[in-house]
Write a structure and sequence with these properties.
The chain is α+β, with helices and mostly antiparallel strands. It has three domains: 2-71, Uridine Diphospho-n-acetylenolpyruvylglucosamine Reductase, domain 2 (2-Layer Sandwich); 76-229, Uridine Diphospho-n-acetylenolpyruvylglucosamine Reductase, domain 3 (2-Layer Sandwich), CATH 3.30.465.10; 237-348, Uridine Diphospho-n-acetylenolpyruvylglucosamine Reductase, domain 1. 26% of the residues lie in helices and 26% in strands. It contains eight helices and 20 strands. It has helices at 30-37, 96-105, 121-127, 200-208, 215-229, 250-264, 284-290, 320-338; strands at residues 2-8, 20-27, 49-52, 58-59, 64-71, 76-82, 85-91, 130-131, 134-135, 140-147, 152-157, 178-188, 237-238, 247-249, 273-274, 279-281, 297-298, 301-303, 311-313, 347-348. Helix 2 (96-105) packs antiparallel against helix 5. The longest helix has 19 residues, at 320-338. Bound molecules: uridine-diphosphate-2(N-acetylglucosaminyl) butyric acid (EPU). The site of uridine-diphosphate-2(N-acetylglucosaminyl) butyric acid has 19 residues, from helix 7.
Length: 349
Amino acid sequence: MKIGRNISLTGRNTFGMKVSCACLVEYDSPEEYRELLSSEVFHTLPLPFLHIGGGSNLLFTADFPGTVFHSRIDFLKEVSRDGDSVRIEAGAGTLWDKVCLYCAENGLWGTENLSGIPGETGAAAVQNIGAYGAEIKDVVESVVCFDSVTEGMKSISGEDCRYDYRTSMFKEGAKGRYAVMSVVLRLSAVPKPKLGYGHLKAAVDALTDGAEPEPMTVRKAVLGIRNAKLPDPAVTGNAGSFFKNPVVPRSSYEVVENYALSLYGSDYIVPHFDAGAGFVKIPAAWLIEQCGWKGYREGNVGVYEKQPLVIINATGNAVPGEILSLEKKITESVINTFGIELTPEVEHI
Ligand code: EPU
């Protein structure tokens, strides 16, 4: 266990915000976490409390006045095998992509589309990470947590996590109650490729010459697409998609369609996906690009030139105010042009 006061968070958020916290606690096991909570020291820790993983989906808007908790519980093991169904367990502090690599190397299906997503496994399960037609919720068997109300460990089934698009009850409803210690995933030893998203099948076919892929092949195709489209946070500060893809009533979508019709003619099809019950999901990247932001630069910040859904710390010297100001301008322009309000995907602290 490590407890430090006035600690820099610069290396702990992929946006590269140069902020600090009043206190940082890092624990290495559920037992250490439990001991801390029943110790004298616990009552001296400044409030509020915040649990972080790899800091890959956070925007610190200022120095954090309270205590940041970080799990260093790092392990990965197979826990059971029942026919073709294989369960593995990973510590909350295990790098998510280490889990994806392990699965691919061991011929296990279920995480390959989620390869290359930065961050740690606990946070991945809290925010229901997703990419290329898959979400972690599809493979979460259970999330093992410390419950601050009962002061005991609790295994919460994937179903009870109330997963939805980039959210779960850990973010809404039961926020702050549970600290994730590990995650149990249910994978398949028989082929279950999910290649329906965009150009993924073409990218996989190019690697296999049309033969049946292994999970490792899908992983390689996904990493190839990601590397071509998304900035590497180790090089350019960013937190992935800054906004969620908005889900709007069909009447709002028709406003967007009319806009496109007047500009591009009747052959043009606005990218969109049916979201059920009269709702439509429109890629925020498209809306932002239409408003002219793709590749935009202002001071130390900008909009990534290959994926306008990503706001970047272009020089490495951005301060939170610059990101917030650009976020506001983008949001306002999308409302003014399309009447659609974008909501951030990145959690603002
Ligand atoms: N598009 C544009 N211009 C661009 C790029 C994209 O108009 O420059 C439009 C295209 O129509 C494209 C569509 O946006 O078909 C979707 O683009 P893409 O497939 O790149 O995905 P996305 O919707 O922008 C989502 C996730 C990503 C995930 C990708 C791939 C959200 C908020 N983002 O992005 O997740 O990697 O799909 O599955 O759902 C993240 O959460 O941080 C993240 C990167």
